[in-house]
Amino acid sequence: MVVATLLVEHAAELATLAGPPGPRRGAQQAEAGIVRDGAVAVGADGSIVAVGSTREVRRAVQLAPDARVLDATGRAVIPGFVDAHTHAVFAGQRADEFALRLQGHDYLEILSSGGGILSTVRATRDASETQLRQAAFSALSVMLAHGTTTLEIKSGYGLDRETEVRMLRVARDLCARGRPHVVATLLAAHAVPPEFQNDRDGYVDLVCREIIPAVARDGLARFCDVFCERGVFSVEQSRRVLEAGLAFGLAPKLHAEQKSHLGGTRLGVALSATSVDHLEYADDDDLAALADSNTVAVLLPGAAFLLREPRSAPARRMIERQVPVALATDYNPGTAPIRSMPLTIGLACVCVGLTPAEALVAATINAACALQLGETVGSLEVGKRADIVILDLPSVTHIPYRFGENPVQTVIAAGEVVVEAVKSA
Ligand code: NIG
Ligand code: FE
User: Fold this and answer.
1) Is 274 left (phi over 0), alpha (psi -120 to 50) or beta?
2) Per residue in 20-29, is it b (16+ CB within 10 Å) or e — as a string?
3) Alpha-carbon distance 71 to 106, whole Å?
4) Which parts of 75-128 fold into alpha helices (H)?
5) What CA–CA distance (Å, rounded) separates 281 from 85?
């Protein structure tokens, strides 16, 4: 009999998210794999050793003498959230820009006049590695307390080799702490730095010839991303960056069709991108291309909401057409100072029309697939990392319903209890 060092039992609803390998599409996007009176048992190596009804799991495992047993009576238990798109390493904040946007100023106009992303670039270039690490560490603690056990972090506020590398070293240090688990993405093509304002192609050359090789050589990123947008990087420039990344083993991702329709989605599909993200302006041809591919659509409803974007991502059409949908906070100081996946699920339900079950799939297993981690996290299945969240809610349907609250009671990361909030019974 297998030995368990930790057991969560008697969950009113255990959402296993178990299913076939790969991202869930169409009708499968709504299958959360709910078990009533559910339990999940963890072995000494921090992986899941049994999952099912409390009766089944109790029969399948032997508790170690010092095993911890958590009673989840009346509560929902889910896999840790996977936040598949964040810009969590940066210096400074942009509350004044937020206030300007509330008065009607446009996000891309603010950027083209040297503010927006470029103001965070100035602050980040001026910050030491220690300052960046401390700020990001405190943000990650907030995320962990909201149930995020895995997240992606992009660079992109350096826009020069030294600062991009510094940001990714911070991401690597955070990854070494392991809670939450971090995956790094190089986003040197996030904006055109002031030094290259009149020579965009010159900056693309620098990214391709210097920054990508330096980052790949030190193993500092798994993915390469680009902001493919009107007035930022064209489809052709994006292609050059992503192909250069591929040549160095970095898998492509894109910020695509966020503020206009430019063609980034189709470029992403042509390059077998792991994900294309945002997609407010994606059209039916984009959805057809995505449906025929392994690329995951990552939606960021928090950014669209705070930008007061008039168009929302066509999430319902995506699901109807078999496009796998994932969710992420997009945590960044400009468009989305949001660190909560439960809030993001609420926004996804209200603003883009996902059902609570579809949003949960999007925030767990599909988000894991958007980071090429679908085999290790994102569901409660034997052999996977024991990233488990106990919610102070009777059902997963209550996650969006309790809009704006943090419903997380206990967070278990790789089998260790890392957050225990005091909540009323
Ligand atoms: O995902 N769109 C580009 N990048 C980020 C925003 C970054 C920023 O404004 O600092 C996004 O929305
Ligand atoms: Fe982003």
Assistant:
1) alpha
2) eeebbbeebb
3) 50
4) 95-102, 107-112, 117-126
5) 18
Give dist(CA 67, CA 5) in Å, integer: 4
Measure the CA–CA gap between 225 and 243, rounded to whole angstroms: 11
Cβ–ligand 1 contact at 158 (below 6 Å) = no
How far does residue 9's CA lie from ligand 1's centre (Å)? 41
The closest-lying atom of ligand 1 relative to the alpha carbon of residue 303 is 12
State in Å: Cα 120 to ligand 2 middle: 13
| pLDDT-based confidence at residue 423 (cuts at 50, 70, 90) | low
- Does residue 363 register a pLDDT over 70? yes
Q: Is 330's C-beta closer than 6 angstroms to any atom of ligand 1?
A: yes
- The pLDDT of residue 421: 82
Amino acid at the residue 159: L
Q: Which ligand is nearest to the CA of 153?
A: 2
DSSP state of 80: P
The DSSP line for 352-376 is S---HHHHHHHHTHHHHHTTT-TTT
DSSP symbol at 335: S
CA angle 163, 251, 136 (to 5 degrees): 40
Mean pLDDT, all residues of the chain:
97
Phi, psi of 66, rounded to the nearest 5 degrees: -100, 25
Per residue in 90-143, pLDDT tens?
999 999 999 999 999 999 999 999 999 999 999 999 999 999 999 999 999 999
DSSP 195: G
120 lines ligand 1 (CB under 6 A): yes
Q: Whose CA is closest to atom 9 on ligand 1?
A: 334
Spacing, Cα 383 to ligand 2 middle (Å) = 32
Question: Is any atom of ligand 1 closer than 6 Å to the C-beta of 303?
Answer: yes
Q: What percentage of the chain exceeds 70 in pLDDT? A: 99
- pTM value is 0.97
Q: Residues 388-406: what's their mean pLDDT?
A: 98
The pLDDT confidence band at residue 424, using thresholds 50, 70 and 90, is: low
Yes or no: say if 35 and 52 are a contact pair by the CB < 8 Å rule: yes
Our mutation pick for probing the ligand 1 site, out of 98, 122, 335, counting the most ligand atoms within 8 A of Cβ, is 335
Closest-CA residue, ligand 1 atom 1, reads 330
CA 107 to chain CA mean position, Å: 22
pLDDT reported for residue 101: 96
Those residues with Cβ within 8 angstroms of residue 33's Cβ, 6 or more apart along the chain or in another chain: 15, 16, 17, 18, 19, 379
The tokens describing 399, both together, are 């996650």
